[in-house]
Amino acid sequence: MCGIVGIVSVGNTAVCQEIYDALTILQHRGQDAAGIVTCENGRFFQRKDNGMVKDVFRTRHMRDLHGKMGIGHVRYPTAGSSSSAEAQPFYVNSPYGIAMGHNGNLTNAEQLSQEIYRQDLRHLNTNSDSEVLLNVFAHELMQQKKLFIDHEDVFNAIRNVHKRAKGGYAAVGLISNIGVFAFRDPFALRPVVVGKRETDAGTDYVVASESVALDGLGFDLMRDLAPGEAVVITEDGQIFFQQCAENPQYSPCIFEFVYFARPDSMIDDISVYKSRLRMGEKLAEKILREWPDHDIDVVMPIPDTSRTSALELAAKLGKPYREGFIKNRYIGRTFIMPGQQLRKKSVRHKLNPIDLEFEGKNVLLVDDSIVRGTTSGQIVEMAREAGAKKVYFASAAPAVRFPYVYGIDMPSASELVANNRTTEEIAEFIGADKLIYQDLDDLIEAVGVGNEQIKLFDTSCFSGKYVTGDITPEYLASIDSARNDSAQAATRATGQEPVGIYNGT
């Protein structure tokens, strides 16, 4: 999972500071690496490296990022390398000079990499599927065979990218002397929003992963890109939209609303905050329906993502809501951390219980989801150590039983705690006295009521149904071998990258 942003300013102000600010706002989407590319008078200026936004960019770097148009990227790696060489945006000098940042995963990246070498006669310098996407686009743009191109040529290239690339992807790019462009996969799995800001010099435009980035910069949200749609913003401030996919189908990733997106974002005209409130309401209704004689004394969230759902759940149950855990905000998301021991250690560093809130009480802990179960088990243990009489656990999402292949770093299927386990067995595994999962139909309703035009969501990590229709057992086996802890440990120990193309976003 990554965050992308692109800005075109028609005034005299360099965009590097606003791209920096937008990446800081989108930091929750990627804490492994960050990068910015700007353009002035046909020349690109770039800074990227591993680390948080505030650590990658110093004053001396910002001074060197000239230009009134540019793009930025923050990254989580999913499988394979976390080398600084994989930091984005990527760049190719032919044709015209193109930079691109990508959020998602190409499920046919291996096939495309071979086509790039053997048919397109282009070179890949990393194992990242983001570089694959850039080179596919560059090749298709070159096929326009024009010395000077316009927005229609860019749309034609994107149209051919959609024909070749499979999976979930949202990309933002920069073409020298042309402008900024962005496009979204034909299923709209990964989010892209477009905004504008009126100035004395004219209209500035921005594209980003989430609307919250627009809010922080003073842009007004225009709309989301539709599935398969692309936008081109020229350096003189003209904006063009065009549908570039043959059979687009709205089926955005529902896990964005469960976990990844900020609650103050709007994605596909759906409030993330409101959807999480409804998740809590649905979960409370299930508890009242299936466990009417419950003995819950207090409801507590596992900070931060589940706080909204827990608050509504407590209100619906008529039980006190309490903050039982205090979070250290300088520890990363634990289900993404490599290695079981590191994850276990980091939970203790990340959360600290307030003992007085637990002593002698039957506590219902609420989390957004349960993935490996490592974090959940540690938290249940901490609640008991703090004096809880009974510890119940509720998940605002259904059981995660299948790997996610469209750009979120879920572990291999064998390391998912719900894989081949019943709810009772999972409760025993994490040490809870009782475990309650959200029903999938309730989750879909909780999110979908925000935009009734969306009839289908990607729920593959819960249901095993992959909307792109190209996910085979062989593909799942290949990502399993790249993502499991043993493979990751071997990579860290030897410094050798896995063979093949992996998702670096």
Notes on the structure:
The protein is built from 18 helices and 21 strands. With 505 residues, it is of the alpha+beta class. Strands 3-2-4-1-10-9-11 form a seven-stranded antiparallel sheet, covered by helices on one side. The chain has a six-stranded antiparallel sheet with strand order 5-6-7-8-12-13. A four-stranded parallel sheet has the order 16-19-20-21, sandwiched between helices. α11 crosses α13. The chain is globular, with a radius of gyration of 23 Å. The chain starts with a strand and ends in an 11-residue tail after the last helix. Residues 334-343 have low confidence and may be disordered.
Number of strands: 21
Range of strand content: 15-25%
Biggest beta-sheet profile: 7 strands, antiparallel
Poorly predicted spans: 334-343
- Taken from the alpha-carbon principal axes, the silhouette is globular
Specify the helix fraction band: 25-40%
Average pLDDT value? 91
In whole angstroms, how far apart are the ends?
Answer: 5 Å
The strand line-up of the biggest sheet is 3-2-4-1-10-9-11
- Overall structural class, as computed from helix and strand content, comes to alpha+beta
Q: Give the count of helical stretches.
A: 18
Radius of gyration: 23 Å
